[in-house]
Sequence to fold (380 residues):
Amino acid sequence: MEKQLIPQLRFPDFKGEWKIKKVENILSIGSGKDYKHLEDGEIPVYGTGGYMTSVDEFLYNGESVCIGRKGTIDNPIFLNEKFWTVDTLFYTHSFKQVLPRFVYSLFQNINWYKHNEASGVPSLSKKTIEKININIPSLPEQQKIASFLSDVDDKITKLTKKKDLLEQYKKGIMQKIFNQELRFKDDDGNEFPKWEMKELGKITKYYDGTHQTPNYVSEGIPFYSVEHVTANQFEKTKFISKKVFDKENKRVRLEKGDILMTRIGNVGKARYIDWDVKASFYVSLALIKQNSSFSSKYLAQYINSVPFQRELWKRIIHVAFPIKINLGEIGKCLVQLPCIEEQTKIANFLSDIDVKIEALDTKIKNSQAFKKGVLQQMFV
Fold:
């Protein structure tokens, strides 16, 4: 039997099947152009990655859905303004019996890579896009769907902006703290002693991970690498056998209270281990052991600060690809050390901000997952 064009999830006011239309029958597609001959201005220029710069002329004015022509082809952009697009981005115009915001939601639900025309860098042609069959409901149903999904987008945008502002606040407050423009006081209101400057290698031990890429298994002991630290995500990992783990664990053991720091590629991102850990790690990470002479939570925050990043930058091998820092050079980096009591206050203050940032990040991811699920069910 022929499949009915009825979505799985639908507003109760609407019935009947959607209609099949080719893209060329509901809108027109324009090609972006080079903008380098233009003067600086107030008209935004967009590429596949979003906003690029501003110029003094516009290519199109009004509601449009931009689609990547080359490279990033799976990230439609909705615009409702005067704008210019570069030649890697198509823009839509002249909509016929279809709402631009509905098209935006519809295009987010298309698997563009299914229509990819290249074996190398992904690419789409105007002709290919025009011949794609899509399913369209009535204008009132389009409006209802578009309004609902716009509300979801607005929520995600507000959460993202709030998170960005909190991250900027933390960056600014860290600069003041580690420049000692802002100092904490003890519980009696007295000032803490002067800070000391010490080499990392003089206050603790540090190790790199295994140099051998292990044989991974479907289930076993988690194995950490750079992407787990940079994404702050340690649940989804590859696994190694207990035999391999036991062998590596004799050389170096990960423990709660230690710090993992990236040392290859994205150098200098630190993560304080605040969970009961049983895992091993790759050579791309450095393990900085906890010590009673300092607060590991403080040190993890300090590693992510500008002063320590400068210390790393001086010692990074920039001609390597990817860039890296040799293990021994990490120990030569200087660390500012307040007394342990002030370290604790600083660490707790900054950690509280991190908790708020992580909570917002979770809300953003949950909203994005909700939208993705709804998109799959609201469209035929």
Notes: The radius of gyration is 26 Å. The chain has a mean pLDDT of 94. DSSP finds ten helices and 17 strands in the chain. The CA atoms of residues 311 and 333 lie 5 Å apart.
